[in-house]
Amino acid sequence: MDMDARKLRILRAIIDDYILTGVPVGSRTISKKYEMGLSSATIRNEMSDLEELGFLDQPHVSAGRIPSAKAYRLYVDSMLQAGIIPDDSAESVLSHFSGRVHQMEEVIDHAAKVLSSLTQYTAVVLSPKGNEPRIQTIQMVPVSAESALVVIVTDQGLIRDSIIRVSSEVDGDTLYAISRTLTNELRGSTLTDACGIMPQLIRRMDGNDEVLRSLYGFFNEGKTVTRSPHVAIGGTSNMLSYPEYSDVDKARNFLSLMETRDKLADIIRGSGEMAFTVRIGPETGVPEMADCSIVTASYSTRSGQQGTIGVIGPTRMRYSRVISILNMMGHELTDMFSGEDEGKRTP
Amino acid sequence: MDMDARKLRILRAIIDDYILTGVPVGSRTISKKYEMGLSSATIRNEMSDLEELGFLDQPHVSAGRIPSAKAYRLYVDSMLQAGIIPDDSAESVLSHFSGRVHQMEEVIDHAAKVLSSLTQYTAVVLSPKGNEPRIQTIQMVPVSAESALVVIVTDQGLIRDSIIRVSSEVDGDTLYAISRTLTNELRGSTLTDACGIMPQLIRRMDGNDEVLRSLYGFFNEGKTVTRSPHVAIGGTSNMLSYPEYSDVDKARNFLSLMETRDKLADIIRGSGEMAFTVRIGPETGVPEMADCSIVTASYSTRSGQQGTIGVIGPTRMRYSRVISILNMMGHELTDMFSGEDEGKRTP
DNA sequence: GTTAGCACTCGCAACCGGAGAGTGCTAACA
DNA sequence: TGTTAGCACTCTCCGGTTGCGAGTGCTAAC
To answer: Is the pLDDT of residue B133 over 50?
Structure first.
């Protein structure tokens, strides 16, 4: 026995119905609601076959059937192959970015919010992650008599800034001079490189040791800090709307997973830097998410870094809708981040 | 009939027990567990009185009593008056800030995490909010051939930065020169002021119109953006551990409230800039929080801005513990932000 | 191959009844 | 007059039972 067109049609109807209602679906429902031209008894036989093939599960004997992870997988794959994407789909995502100027992190936060409110699931947006950024400009700005702000611009437009102490004798012009020299010496290096070079620079540029040493310290810290990307989450509470999470313990587990951003980032990014991923149930590899699905897409910035956006929902997710929304949002973000003014734009 | 010492002692026992167990407490429990030297019957009479006085509620006739908001209020007030604070309280909060250097926002995020894990409730930390910041230094740093980074240092150490377009003819030294002039002209102004001054500056400093106009635009945006403070939340999932939130609907309401950061910030800050607040149940003024309590404390930075930290928990909160932890955390943050290096430190 | 019919299986909601907790009241006691 | 023992009463909670409805699987007829 194997799959034929009719089995497929029936399976599809079952999945559609289950996604809609969330309750096990019976043979009668299929035969009536989706005019198949078949009686419930026939459907019943087919369903029995489908169960044997591993596409359906039966919570208990007298309930209807529910689709298995394998079924969703088939469903999603065939949908993607057929290119059925923007069908029941999203209004333009575009309109949700209002005519304001955005900082990178704001865009990301906002994207998570929009994504969750459009999908009614939980959304996660990761900031782009690329190679270690390379220094482009270093500038120190006096802040008070005793402290200065260090700004480092990198090739990724990423800016690390921090305040360091400087002795009160060093004035703005001196800082500017030092900044210029440093920029010349360190342009193109990574922060890690910079840490290697600094000691000899300190020896060479005698005077202003204090400032240089502070900077050295700053580089050292910066090395580690730069790595962790920004993670924005939206609509965690949406999950609780679904009967799958009416169990409070389950909900709590899910929420605490959402709270550990690092772990969450790993999970979302789990599938490498693929342009597009759908992971269903066990495929997520996370026990806590055994009955969740994760759909991710990626976006990229002008400098070629990859960021990831993802939606987490119950396995009976409205895949086509989610996929289409993610698609649009991915493009939207890519556009936004490849504008002339990297990291911001005025629409 | 009015309160006497015995009634108070009994009320206190009831509250203690209820905070511990979360279930309505009966007369027998009080008379046995807390050696009162009184029979359950006597306690019963007193409890009846206490109910009449509005300190106790009875979910139904054959359940025990639970403390009312009024009772908690009395409890907290008497506790505060007596100065009973660091009793059953926190190990040093200090140890939780490991020996690393922190950026303001990181400190705040971290504080929320620590606070929630110490209290087992939900914690909220707001970044300091003061008057509109005043410009101290303006600096532009070339980023690419066509764009520059603007950094504005304010008296609050608050830094606004953004990327603006500049034409390719303008080199780094020119930018530095313009920056110096602007700093001289605008030092001490707020961004709002700056917007007023800019037009005439543009007229006076002829040449480099483009750069100045871009800056003007940036000031205009900055005015509005600067206002929204950073809000860090920790331990939202903790709330679901308490039977009060075993109802999924309630939990969802609570969570979506936590997601709207602006509203949350308003609520937390709701009680003005008091050094210390305890709002119990209805006192929060938020219907969704009718059976929550909010305890807040404030911290301040060197420049005198006030930030707020808060803990949200069920009304049967372990007040003394929470208050003591908040106290310590408040001091800790104040110390951290009044160090020489405003906004960061190396312990 | 399809379908009607039927017996069978479960889950679920409603119902019932007893147990237990806790109260309020009354009457006795110090 | 305050305290306590005793008792009837009220509710909730829990376990067991029952009936209903949904849905299946099988068989026999078309």
So the answer is: yes
